[in-house]
Design goal:
Chain lengths: 280, 116
């Protein structure tokens, strides 16, 4: 490159301007590091390429029945995720549960909807839903993508959460992260005021606007990733929830195919709050 | 805290204490989201002259089925099949697939561990 700069400079273009022009062509995006620096930054990141799924889903049958091992894992997860609510939120939770139980008892043939919306992307943390997951890891951001429509942006460029007056509850909240060796530490606030871990938690658990998640994500070995959760909410929870979720490498499929198209052939529609299956 | 919720709906509309075996021919194989379905025509062996009864049986999503060995063309209209299901509680002719045995007597995909 030095020769190019000299050649341009020899034609009467000041050296500084020539260097600036060339740098501008090579690194066109303002404020980014040079490609050499970025390659070095990439080299420090762990290799999380591949496709992953929750361990409990391994061995699922055609009708989505869990394997015996999968059921055992789900029970373990449910026990680990069982919250110790504050008395105020225990009362809220009991009320929700009673309503659901009463609705089931009133018409056991047609189960009530216990979580919503049914075909929207799953809410944060979206790491225990059916389907497959993928991580895209760059120096600036780690992105978690799932085939059932979750996209989580975890900013690792050193930024803080936005100021309070620029935050509002969203499906995925606001996530920032940093690396401790090969472990991605994720801090998430501003999710909706409820906890839903898909298959693991049954239905939405009421939480307050103080809900705060910390996740420690790491690859345990070539075929296994582990996410350690700490769920804190000083208003809704008497003590934090600690749980560990295991993702395993998918070896029987090699592409992500989205599965969110519920409109295509919805034969378990919700009628007056209950599932009514259409058989033909 | 339930642990049996499906991706997009509960499976409690199916009676998991009962298994029904359907022997018939495929009317249609729907390779669709959010679930794949088989429409199967089931004759009544005790009444050969009667119209066969159409059943609709539900499976997982296409990608998940492909991972278990299914393909969009695994079943075609007219194929003879034997399907074990958990029937719907409400008495309609529908259910959740536990196992599918195809035209050559071979199991297709991955049957449930509980399938009889």
């Amino acid at each position: 490159m030095t020769n190019i700069v000299r050649r341009i400079a020899s034609r009467g273009v000041p050296l500084a301007i020539a260097a600036w022009l060339i740098a501008g062509c090579l690194f066109p995006v303002g404020g980014q590091t040079s490609s050499k620096e970025r390659i070095k930054a990439f080299a420090k990141l762990p290799d999380w390429t591949g496709i992953w799924e929750l361990d409990a889903f391994v061995g699922q049958a055609d009708g989505q029945q869990f394997s015996a091992e999968g059921q055992r894992r789900l029970k373990e997860y449910a026990a680990a995720l069982r919250p110790s609510f504050s008395s105020e939120y225990q009362a809220k939770y009991d009320e929700i549960r009673k309503k659901i139980e009463a609705a089931i008892a009133a018409d056991p043939d047609h189960p009530p909807v216990t979580h919503d919306p049914l075909c929207a992307p799953p809410p944060f943390p979206a790491t225990s839903t059916p389907g497959m997951y993928q991580w895209q890891v760059t120096p600036e951001e780690a992105t978690f993508i799932s085939t059932v429509g979750a996209v989580r942006h975890i900013y690792t460029d050193g930024r803080s959460h936005p100021p309070k007056d620029e935050l509002w509850p969203t499906l995925m909240g606001d996530s920032i992260g940093h690396w401790e060796g090969d472990t991605l530490v994720v801090d998430t606030i501003s999710t909706r005021k409820r906890l839903y871990m898909g298959e693991l938690s049954g239905f939405f658990m009421p939480m307050s606007d103080q809900l705060h998640f910390t996740e420690r994500v790491r690859m345990v070995n070539h075929d296994q990733m582990q996410i350690d959760y700490t769920v804190e909410d000083p208003v809704a929870l008497a003590k934090p929830i600690h749980a560990t979720i295991v993702h395993v490498r998918v070896t029987d499929f090699s592409r992500m195919v989205e599965e969110t198209d519920c409109e295509q052939n919805e034969r378990d529609p919700v009628v007056e709050g209950r599932f009514k299956t259409i058989v033909k | 805290m339930g642990t049996s919720a499906l991706a997009h709906h509960s499976r409690s509309m199916f009676d998991q204490t009962k298994q029904t075996t359907l022997v018939g021919s495929v009317k249609e194989f729907q390779w669709t989201n959010p679930h794949c379905w088989i429409q199967v025509l089931v004759p009544d062996p005790s009444n050969p002259g009667a119209e066969p009864v159409e059943w609709g049986v539900e499976m997982g999503a296409p990608v998940e089925l492909m991972r278990k060995g299914w393909k969009p063309g695994s079943l075609n209209p007219g194929d003879k099949v034997t399907i074990v299901i958990n029937p719907l509680r409400d008495g309609q002719h529908g259910g959740l697939v536990l196992s599918v045995t195809g035209p050559e007597g071979k199991i297709i995909g991955r049957p449930a561990e509980t399938a009889k």
